[in-house]
């Protein structure tokens, strides 16, 4: 995940402000989408069991309850460690993609440094596959990492890239993905469609974060919405089906309302209150015989 100038981590998820001198006031697109329930219990259990089974200390700990408990405790956080490592890898890949766009636009960039960061972590293959896709699809960048705002519904977010491909205007969201056992990049979650349609429905885009200046959103008129999965073996672009966009937009609007309700619930006070016995029942209790 990138770190836009106006994005803030809060107790209510990631939120955006109108300028660097203002407090955050609306949730991010990803925070809204996260209101949808996701059952990761099976994945967490699988990651913990796999970490335990692959731990070289397991044989030594067999028959020693204290050591087994220590290994189990460490294995229980395997999913969080994997998630955090994947997030850092995603940041590095996204940074490289942004720098490629900036270079193509003739703007100051740190492409060499971004690629070196990937190489230092054994991730240079992501950059190589991205470069191949960029050339094959003849991507013409217009604006990378552009922050957008919708006042009517109340949300903001940052689009990875606005570009032209094959003469068509495209809104693009990059997803860094692992590789499956067949050597193919893993499939993207369909929630990317909600993310893209929310970006398309923006009303403004950021001009200057410090000044808090915005302009009308210029790229929401029937763009192609692309989710681009970037892996070590391939890059797989997927287009959001135009026939289903309205339903994903309706769902996003409903989840935005859920976020509001969550705030109201948090501010409403205690949900459960203690209850004593009825007064009449207390009066009828006779003292015990001495």
User: Using only CA atoms, what is the Rg?
Assistant: 25 Å
From the coordinates shown, what is the CATH architecture of one domain?
A: Alpha-Beta Complex
* Separation of the first and last Cα atoms: 72 Å
* SSE ordering: EEEHHHHHHHEEEHEEEEHH
Strand content: 15-25%
* Number of contiguous helices: 10
What structural category characterises the helix and strand content? alpha+beta
Task: Give the uncertain stretches in residue-range form.
Answer: none
CATH topology of one domain: Lambda Exonuclease, Chain A
Average pLDDT works out at 90
> What is the percent of helical residues?
40-55%
Biggest β-sheet description: 7 strands, mixed
Number of strands: 10
Task: Specify the CATH class of one domain.
Answer: Alpha Beta
Q: Going across the major beta sheet, what is the strand order?
A: 8-7-4-5-6-9-10
Oligomer: single chain
Judging from the principal axes of the Cα atoms, what is the shape?
globular
